[in-house]
Design goal:
The chain is an alpha+beta fold. The strands form two sheets. A four-stranded antiparallel sheet has the order 2-3-1-4, sandwiched between helices. A four-stranded antiparallel sheet has the order 6-7-5-8. It is globular and about 45 Å long. It starts with a strand and ends with a helix.
Length: about 180
């Protein structure tokens, strides 16, 4: 299971239907299937690259006009799933980086790019809960590494056109650091 794929819809029945189609077409495992803020629905699957590509490809037409975004990430960075599930250790207070996106799928692929580009630790990938359909992710590391990770994520995110804002805080106050963790 070295790849993940995700479909994001702005309609719950369409998302469920697309997820069902994805799971029936290829040998993939369901990671997440849930309604999120603003009436969106996400389905994330895992498997080998070919199976994930096939499943996402078959799910997109089922989602139809309700499709917001989709991704396939071959060789997904190990930190990504833990950060989605908020099962990470933030570690010591170091530089803090954050990117907000307008699609949940964009946050996942940007976080993967950030983690692959530099020596950073993903803290959390927050997918749409209480965010009006947006998403964000946070990371920490040395200032240069966080800046490099943000740059790589923004470059990846330009392809999707769903980037909101980003920030690098070189020395966050300990209380802010604790509040985001």
């Amino acid at each position: 299971m070295n790849a993940i794929g995700m479909i994001e819809t702005n309609n719950i029945p369409a998302g469920i239907n697309a997820g069902d189609a994805m799971l029936k077409v290829a040998d993939v495992r369901l990671v997440i299937a849930q309604a999120v803020c603003a009436g969106k629905y996400i389905v994330m699957i895992a498997g080998d690259v070919a199976a994930v590509k096939s499943a996402v490809s078959d799910g997109k037409p089922v989602a139809g006009n309700y499709l917001v975004d989709d991704i396939v990430i071959p060789n997904v960075e190990d930190q990504v799933i833990a950060a989605i599930n908020a099962c990470t250790e933030a570690g010591e207070v170091r530089a803090l980086g954050m990117i907000e996106t307008y699609s949940l799928a964009s946050a996942v692929i940007c976080a993967d790019s950030a983690a692959k580009a530099a020596d950073v630790r993903l803290i959390e990938i927050r997918l749409g809960r209480g965010l009006g359909g947006k998403a964000f992710f946070t990371m920490n590391g040395d200032v240069a590494a966080v800046k490099a990770a943000i740059d790589a994520a923004l470059e990846e995110g330009q392809e999707h056109g769903m980037i909101g804002n980003s920030v690098v805080i070189p020395a966050p106050h300990e209380d802010i650091y604790k509040a985001i963790y």
